[in-house]
Amino acid sequence: METSERSDTTLSSGADADTGSEPLRFVDWLTAGVLALVGLAFVLGGAALLLWTDPETVTRLVADGTIRSDVLGPAALTDLVVLTAWWSGAGLVGTGLGTWLVGGWFVAARRRERREGVRGVRTNAIVGAVTSAVFGFVPFSPVLGGAVAGYLQRGDRDVGLRVGGLSGLLAALPVVVVLLFVFVGLVAGATGSEALPVVAVAAAVTAVALLFALLFSVGLGAAGGLLAVELVGRGGGDASDDPTGDGDEPATEDDPATGGDDPAVET
């Protein structure tokens, strides 16, 4: 009986490495498509908010009672609404453009990985993050995203923790960035008014809560990545195509012990 020492999860060489398996290619393009749609939603939402942020429109809404406050006067309330809306719209547009850039980089990086026969931590983490976003309605969805990233990456426990944790971070990052822009708008709009202390305290408390939520997402993603690599290892998958854990180690047929070709082992 002949068994090969080369793992079945290593990307194949030659033409197969350039094209990749059809299921994985489908996942890659699906991921890029979701990133494009999410980026479009952010950009359109931000652009609409920026177009609506007209001081005259906001002044009219404040005057007719559509926007009201028991603390701020009409002028201070108008400034607060205008600046908060403007910063929020800018944050949405910036996040959308950043999502598009990530999507373009992802497609290019995946092509390079297939050509070189490598498995990238960052690209697999992006797939996991998109999975978390798509299944965001499911409780503890970062675990699912981390598991997908860990399954695609394979490797040892450290690699599973890293790719899963990065997946959780990327899944939560867009929301955190947008909310940071909202906080900047709130503080800028409340500056010089009696509402500034209240807004500043609320922003600080919310920022701390966001930090814990971000760490929670990272932890859940890391747990999912660890679970995936453990299950793959127990199921007979390879333990690690990348013993260094950097995710960019090329697949090779060289025998590290002898420096020669990796022959089939006869038993």
Quick rundown:
With 267 residues, this protein is an all-alpha fold. It has 8 helices and 2 strands.
Fold and architecture overview:
- This protein is an all-alpha fold and 267 residues long.
- The protein has one domain (13-245).
- It is built from eight helices and two strands, in the order βααααααααβ.
- Strands 1-2 form a two-stranded antiparallel ribbon.
- Helix 2 crosses helix 5.
- The protein is elongated and about 65 Å long.
Categorize the overall geometry. elongated
Q: Helical stretch count?
A: 8
Strand order of the largest sheet: 1-2
Intertermini distance: 6 Å
- Give the count of structural domains: 1
Radius of gyration: 24 Å
Main pleated sheet:
2 strands, antiparallel
Structural class estimated from helices and strands: mainly alpha
Element layout with pairings:
Layout: E1 2-3, H1 15-19, H2 22-52, H3 55-63, H4 74-116, H5 121-134, H6 141-153, H7 157-190, H8 196-234, E2 265-266
Antiparallel strand pairs: 1-2
